Structures are given as C-alpha cells and as structure tokens.
C-alpha cells in the first residue's frame, strides 16, 4: 500500500486503443475507480489515485487489457500537476442552443438558454460527454417546473444544476465518491442552484421520497442492481432517464426495466452509447 504522503498522487495510464474499440474499452475501464478519462489520437489517457490502485484493481485492469488486446504505459503524476493536466483536457459541452457546460477558466458561452459553470477539479466522467449530452437533450424535452428530481450518481452536479435552472422545486443528488459530492456542493453554490441537497454514499444515504424525475447517468451494473429501488422512489407517472449504457446493452436493460415495472418511452443514441426514457405507469 502507498504511504500517506503519496495518497494524493495519481497514476497516469496511456492506453493504446484502436478507434473502433474505444467506447467498448471505456465501458470496461469505467467499472474501475479511475477519476478521469481523455481521448487522444492513439487511444485513452486514464488517471487513478495511487491509493485507489490496489492489487485487486491492478489485476482487473490487466484482465481487461488482455481481453481487449490493449497495450498501456503507466507513470506517477504528482498531485500538484493534476489540475493542470485535467484542465488541458476538459472541453466545454454545448447541446444545441439549449445548454452549455463550461469550466471556470473558459469564456462565457453565447447563444444558450442555460449555462452551467463547473470547477473541474477532481471531476468525474470526462470521457462520457456522449452520455451527458444525451441526458441534457432528454431533460430539454421534459417539463421540470415544480417537480422533485433525484440525480443518482451526480458526479460534478451538472444534471442537478440544470434541473434547478429548469425550475425543479427540489433536487436530491448522491454519489459514492467524496470528491464528486464536494464538487456537486461547490458547483451548486457557484451556479446559484439553491434547491439541491447533496448526499455522500449509496442510494440508501438519501432519505426516502418519491420523485417526479430520476436521472441515472451511471453504468449498466449499478442501474440493473438499483431498478427495484428506483421504481419504488418514482411517483406514478414519473419518468426515469438512464444513460451510461452501451447500445449493445440497450435491449437487455430495457427488458430488465420493463420486468421491474417500468414502461419504455423512447431511446436515443450517440456514438456507441444509449439513453433511455422510462415511465412508471399510473
């Protein structure tokens, strides 16, 4: 195990991935406790805290890379250099004229109805812009004024903040990672999103409430395991928006969700990723 002085350092992995394999590789690697991904001309750059890179995680990484035939190099990055590396990789997100997401060091975005400004330090999901994009698109087509919303796996709090800007009456947000929880609190304050309550932990950390909308931009396994709880926490007639799902897993997830009681309302795709909309029957 690393000594305490090194616990805030990071391992930087340069992973060589062919273009047609990148989304599949990212889906598998996202199951491991990497904080950040960025795409390059040759593949993926991935970052993980030294103290999170346990022998179990190392074995899992080796299994994934062997299974997919990926080559990788590893080096340690001092914590003081981490933010600069991350900021260089982060790019603003623009969803048509509806919403723009930028970092504090970017210029204001023009021509968008909603602008969200985040502090990207220790942010999560930088390799998942396709899923974030689709969730924002799906929210654009959802009436949120006066509704209660649950952001399950909130990351930097982008979706919770957008829900606040769209007029939601109350938003609960939860994440199992403490840096994500802290960023959600800081970003909510930065954007004047006063209707957000953030929680650290699993879904059980959030006091029970039935919501009008649940946002779940996580991964397949977490969503599958949580379907009964999500169904129980959704109002009759409420909607569940799900992303972080590969197109190849879309039909399976839809079937399991219907089996849990949801009605499939529609799907969208971007790249190799899917976004699904469900409703809890009246």
Write the layout of secondary structure elements.
Layout: E1 10-16, H1 22-29, E2 36-39, E3 43-49, H2 55-68, E4 71-77, H3 82-89, E5 93-95, E6 99-103, E7 114-118, H4 129-140, E8 148-152, H5 158-165, E9 170-175, H6 178-190, E10 196-200, E11 211-217, H7 220-232, E12 234-246, H8 247-259, E13 263-270, E14 273-279
Parallel strand pairs: 6-7, 8-9, 8-11, 9-10, 11-12
Antiparallel strand pairs: 1-3, 1-4, 2-3, 5-6, 12-14, 13-14
What report would you give on this structure?
- The protein contains 8 helices and 14 strands.
- The protein has helices at residues 22-29, 55-68, 82-89, 129-140, 158-165, 178-190, 220-232, 247-259; strands at 10-16, 36-39, 43-49, 71-77, 93-95, 99-103, 114-118, 148-152, 170-175, 196-200, 211-217, 234-246, 263-270, 273-279.
- β5 (93-95) and β6 form a beta hairpin.
- The chain is α/β, with parallel strands linked by helices and 282 residues long.
Gist?
The chain is an alpha/beta fold. Helices cover 32% and strands 32% of the residues.
Average pLDDT for all residues? 87
Cα Rg: 18 Å
Kindly report the name of the CATH homologous superfamily of the largest domain.
Vaccinia Virus protein VP39
Number of helices: 8
Structural class: alpha/beta
| Beta-strand content estimate | 25-35%
CATH C-level class of the largest domain is Alpha Beta
Biggest sheet layout: 7 strands, mixed
Q: How many domains make up the 3D coordinates?
A: 2
- Amino- and carboxy-terminal Cα gap: 52 Å
Task: Give the total of beta strands.
Answer: 14
Quaternary structure: single chain
CATH architecture of the largest domain: 3-Layer(aba) Sandwich
Q: What is the H/E string?
A: EHEEHEHEEEHEHEHEEHEHEE
Low-confidence runs of at least 5 consecutive residues: 1-7, 122-127
């Amino acid at each position: 195990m690393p000594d305490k002085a090194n616990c805030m350092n990071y391992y930087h992995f340069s992973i060589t991935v062919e273009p047609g394999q990148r989304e599949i590789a990212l889906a598998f690697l996202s199951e491991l406790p990497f904080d950040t991904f960025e795409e390059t001309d040759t593949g993926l750059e991935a970052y993980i805290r030294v103290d999170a890179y346990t022998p179990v995680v190392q074995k899992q990484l080796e299994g994934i890379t062997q299974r997919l035939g990926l080559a990788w190099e590893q080096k340690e990055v001092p914590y003081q250099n981490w933010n600069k590396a991350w900021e260089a990789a982060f790019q603003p997100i623009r969803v048509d004229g509806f919403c723009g997401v930028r970092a504090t060091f970017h210029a204001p975005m023009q021509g968008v109805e909603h602008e969200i400004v985040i502090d990207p330090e220790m942010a999560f999901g930088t390799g998942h812009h396709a899923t974030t994009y689709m969730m924002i698109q799906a929210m654009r087509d959802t009436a949120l004024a006066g509704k209660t919303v649950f952001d399950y796996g909130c990351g930097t709090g982008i979706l919770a903040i957008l829900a606040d800007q769209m007029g939601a009456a109350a938003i609960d947000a939860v994440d199992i990672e403490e840096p994500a929880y802290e960023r959600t609190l800081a970003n909510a304050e930065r954007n004047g999103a006063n209707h957000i309550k953030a929680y650290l932990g699993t879904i059980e950390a959030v006091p029970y409430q039935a919501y009008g909308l649940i946002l779940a931009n996580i991964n397949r396994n977490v969503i599958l395991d949580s379907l009964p709880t999500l169904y129980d926490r959704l109002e009759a007639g409420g909607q569940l928006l799900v992303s972080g799902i590969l197109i190849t897993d879309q039909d399976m997830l839809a079937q399991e969700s219907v089996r849990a009681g949801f009605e499939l309302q529609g799907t969208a795709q971007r790249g190799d990723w899917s976004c699904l909309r469900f409703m809890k029957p009246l």
